[in-house]
Amino acid sequence: MKSLFALALLLPIAASAAPTDVIVRSEFIFEKAPYPSCHASTIAEVGPGKLVAAWFGGTKERAPDVGIWVARCVDGRWTEAIEVANGLQPDGKREPTWNPVLFAPPDAPLFLFYKVGPSPSKWWGVVTTSADGGKTWSKPTRLPEGILGPIKNKPVVLADGTWLSPSSTEGNKEGWLVHFEISRDRGATWERTKPVPQGPHFDAIQPSVLFHADGRLQAIARTRQGVNAQTWSKDGGKTWSPLTAIDLPNPNSGTDAVTLADGRQLLVYNHSGHRANEAKGDRWPLDVALSRDGVHWQRVLTLETEPNKAGYAYPAVIQTRDGLVHITYTWDRTRIKHVVLDPTKL
Predict the structure, then answer these.
(1) Does residue 154 sit in helix, strand or coil?
(2) Most buried of 215, 246, 290, 343, CB within 10 angstroms?
(3) Is 62 exposed, middle or buried (0-12, 13-18, 19+ CB in 10 A)?
(4) What is the per-residue pLDDT across 189-234, written as a single tens digit (0 to 9) for each?
(5) CATH of the domain at 63
């Protein structure tokens, strides 16, 4: 195990040179907000040239005033964000909200999943939907017992129409465990898979799902062991192989990945290892890596390089129908940044 971690940490410091026209657009979704802290963004396409982004914002992570905020991008401009959900309970107590995840399946409403609860070990899953591209939202519904929803990264739709939601648990006696949640009736009901085998004991959470031409699925997950981990499925996500390391570091920070239309795999992550004697590291720089087989990865672009204690983290990534890649991420815990890439230049 130690040799794997060392390999990841010894990878080149600088990303491969990239043409300046790779980055088509770079902007903050908002400049000012009615809260001091925000984190964990998500993004979805709801129509040609129409995007929706969400994140949680409040006093600080875990504070009871943290709510879920949404903004829409129409004709290239972001609307003012509005709070669409909070953790107010029937007894009047307000719990923190966490990790929104947008999901835009074909011929269905826009789904917004999020978590509510005092901590990751005690939170529960909630879902709300929008039939008008994120303008208005349904009354939030608690997910069934044992179903958390996508923990950080977007669900995917399989070839047979099945929805596969990447999920995980943390903070309990079993440790950090990846699992998946499957719906065959467009979100009406869900079933939960067994936890992914930990391999040589990887503590992993927050997977994202990739497609391969041979029909296999691959999931990439964050770990506490200094590297990104992977698992593979040959049966549509029902069962998964034991976790193994890929050749990219991870400072115990969230990632996201997407399979591009040309078949390449794209991962957004922090190219940073652990600090000495700590189970975490710096959440900078923020990088993009590509792979053709999911096994061999090349770091191709650095999005953020300046040292920042709060970091640039928790990316979300999608490819829109025009072929462009959209990435959102936490910037200094005070703003959400939106970057658009032309993947043909990578």
Answers:
(1) coil
(2) 246
(3) middle
(4) 999 999 999 988 899 999 999 999 999 999 999 999 999 999 999 9
(5) 2.120.10.10
